[in-house]
Amino acid sequence: MNRQFDAVVIGAGQAGPSLAQRLGQAGRKVALVERKLMGGTCVNTGCIPTKAMVASAYVAHSGRRAADYGVHAGDVSVDMASVWKRTRGISEKSRSNVENWVAGMPNVTLFRGHARFESPHTLRIGDELIDAENIFLNVGGRAVAPDFPGANVVPYLTNVGILDLQELPQHLVIVGGSYIGLEFGQMFRRFGAEVTIVERNHRLLPREDPDVSAAVVDILQREGITLHLGAECIELQGGAGKVCVIAECAEPRMEVHGTHLLMAVGRQPNTDDLGLDKAGVEMDDHGYVVVDDQCRTNVEGIWAMGDCNGRGAFTHTSYNDYEIVAANVLDNEPRRISDRIPAYALYIDPPLARIGLTEHEALQHGYDVQVGVRPMTRVGRAIERGETLGFMKVLVDRQSERLLGAAILGASGDEAIHCLLDVMYADAPFRTVTHAVHIHPTVSELLPTTLQDLHPAADTAAK
């Protein structure tokens, strides 16, 4: 006889354990299934370990600049084995915290194994079958396997494998100017490696406005990172310790040689081995589970949260999916994905924080856009810290006086931008910010000043 549960949560990433806990606390009998590591991508191969490495890289970079602050630190060297040990320790502690948390949840049974649908309400986990009226998918995603010629024979790293490096690459070549590629590129340059980034688009971060993309390019090039843009028709050659990336269609033809290769060409959902066809769950052409505004699939009683539903690729959007599902299933509160304001950050140094619309998007939507811009060279806190690269940019709709979006590329921008994000969620006029008294000296205190000097936007995104 199949084991009976009220609910099954597949995947112990950001959304899964939180939902399992809420369901268990509500008195429901819950099965939580995890086939690999508790905590998902963020804890094991994403946010936590990569940001730990970013922190090590920041210390190395600061040490080399110590004389600028009147501090003599001597020669700075990086012990990659120690960096790896520190990073692994932080990640393992976070995973252990998740494991202990789940172990103490009332009415929740943890299954270790790969769950596959036998029918819309029956799952197989190894030799065991379990039934439930409600099934929640939180299966995450993984790096896309590149289809370039030579990718099947040339050794390469993904965001997972590069975390295991305990020796510094002599020359790291990165294919893909994505957030993953740029973060690893800068950190390994700061560790002491030569770094080259190859990107198929003609500018980095093509979804951002051109002024943001150009400023990011400037930051990376200042640190000695080589960029090759417009690299079409990519082919891989070579072997271990001697890799080569060729772009036949680049003008002129491009050829880059290195010792290590990181492929950062995108991610895909972990939905190809769930038996979703047996459940009748609809997927799009890219393998993402199709969901409505409450994360419900086309099959009654099946939901999908996090990276696998294609409605957000971040830890915070995955967690918000859990909040939306819990609100609708348990609290009779009709929260929706469409109420979510886009918000994310690129963790190079200085970081890029983005909320809402870009200038180009706002103009395309027909808003009467006004823009306020301030370089970080006019931010007292940035000057005091000696970190004045970047700028802040805020968009306002002149008719409604509502904030449309913002970008802060600069020191502490990933923290400062939240005061604007909260005003957007409150649907308050931008003058709420201009009339606020911010603490001095902070990065945030320049946001009211930036909003007091607005000018009409000009669509430059195509340039």
What does this structure look like?
By secondary structure, the protein is an alpha/beta fold. It folds into 3 domains: 3-142 and 268-339, FAD/NAD(P)-binding domain, CATH 3.50.50; 161-265, FAD/NAD(P)-binding domain; 343-456, FAD/NAD-linked reductase, C-terminal dimerisation domain (Enolase-like, domain 1, 2-Layer Sandwich). It is built from 14 helices and 22 strands. The strands form 5 sheets. Strands 1, 2, 3, 4, 5, 6 and 16 form a 7-stranded mixed sheet that branches. A 6-stranded antiparallel sheet has the order 17-18-21-20-19-22. Strands 10-9-8-14 form a 4-stranded parallel sheet, with helices on one face. A hairpin with a 2-residue loop joins strand 5 (122-125) and strand 6 (128-137). Helix 3 (47-64) packs parallel to helix 5. The radius of gyration is 24 Å and the shape is globular.
Provide a quick synopsis of the model.
The protein is α/β, with parallel strands linked by helices and 463 residues long. The chain has 14 helices and 22 strands. The chain is 30% helix and 24% strand.
